[in-house]
Amino acid sequence: MSFKEHLNYRYLLYPFGLMRTKEILKVNPTIIPQRFESKESVITVYEYNNEIFTEHKCIGLKDCSRFSTTDTVKWINVDGINKENVESLAALFNIHYLITEDIQSVGQRPKMDDINNHLFCLLNMLYFNEQKEAIEGEQISFVLGAHYVISFQEDADRDVFNSLREKLKVAATKIRQSKADYLCYVLIDMIVDHYFLVMDKLGDKIESLEEEIIKSPDTRSLAKINQLRKELIVLKRSIAPVRELVNGFVKSDSSLIDEATRKYFKDIYDHVIQANDLVENYRDMMIAMQDLYINQVNLKMNEVMKVMTIVTCLLAPAAVIGGIFGMNFDRIPYLHNQYGFYIAVSLMLCIPVWMIFVFKRRGWF
């Protein structure tokens, strides 16, 4: 291993490996996490029905107050979570304080609640960081009301809703003909569908690692196995609770969910089950890959030991013959024979050649 490879290996094991472990396992529900609040929140309101569509950039909360009484469907998207703005919006739309606490929380388990004529859900949007080869998550919250859906995002620079924004501009789409509960379904469905894109990228990493282990396993391969297993923990923790979340919408008796919309949430439920099964398959593959790595290393060691054993066996006749003729006795056969040296050397060469023939015939190498 070169010096550069050694440094890369240490970097992979320590800064990424150990720090990533602490990042994944440091969740403690008894400790109140500290959120780094955004200095400012960007509020965008998409208002529509089957005839009109408008997009509003709200400068302040006063601009949002006029949307609390209209009958059109509204998607109020808040980029950047700020305590003051969250509490002000909650007061404007009569959102329960328990929901506002969950919106401002950090590291929450995905869940769904029905509180004070609002349906609230919280889950993670997942992204795959190509540079770090790690899965990153962003906590997002949805509040479903009578004619609106409010979404709270932590990061204003990325989300998975760009295709939805384009669909809202087209009057003939189903979402323009539907109510706010269908909008909520589409938002959750896009997050769940993006899980599969993240898992596809992780699956590509697993596939390339498997080929690497089969061809030339080394200590760096083992570090990559541990790295991918940690990313699967992040996937499992983010996706598994979403099944219960979606099931809450399916079984909810709230008047905010139309009976015609429940079948769409059932479709998300099927997708979440499929995603969970895929994560379990990846997990089984990583366990099998670790066994494959151990088997490949053992096989490589066995090959080395076999070569060394064969070499030792081939040199054994020469060592025995040399030892016999090197003893300090006065009378040794062929000791004073003019051809004794040539006879001894011939035996040292012929016996190993005969041994190679026997080993080859028995299939030992």
Structural class of the secondary structure composition? alpha+beta
Largest sheet, spatial ordering of strands: 2-1-3-7-6-5-4
Termini Cα gap: 28 Å
Query: What Rg is obtained from the alpha carbons, in whole angstroms?
Result: 34 Å
User: Could you name the ranges where pLDDT drops below 50 across 5 or more consecutive residues?
Assistant: 1-16
Mean pLDDT: 84
Task: Tell me what the CATH architecture of the largest domain is.
Answer: 2-Layer Sandwich
What count of helical segments does DSSP give? 10
How would you describe this protein?
With 365 residues, the protein is α+β, with helices and mostly antiparallel strands. The chain folds into 2 domains: 19-296, 2-Layer Sandwich (Beta Polymerase, domain 2), CATH 3.30.460; 303-361, Methane Monooxygenase Hydroxylase, Chain G, domain 1, CATH 1.20.58. Helix content is 59%, strand content 15%. The protein contains 10 helices and 7 strands. It is rod-shaped. The protein starts with a helix and ends with a helix.
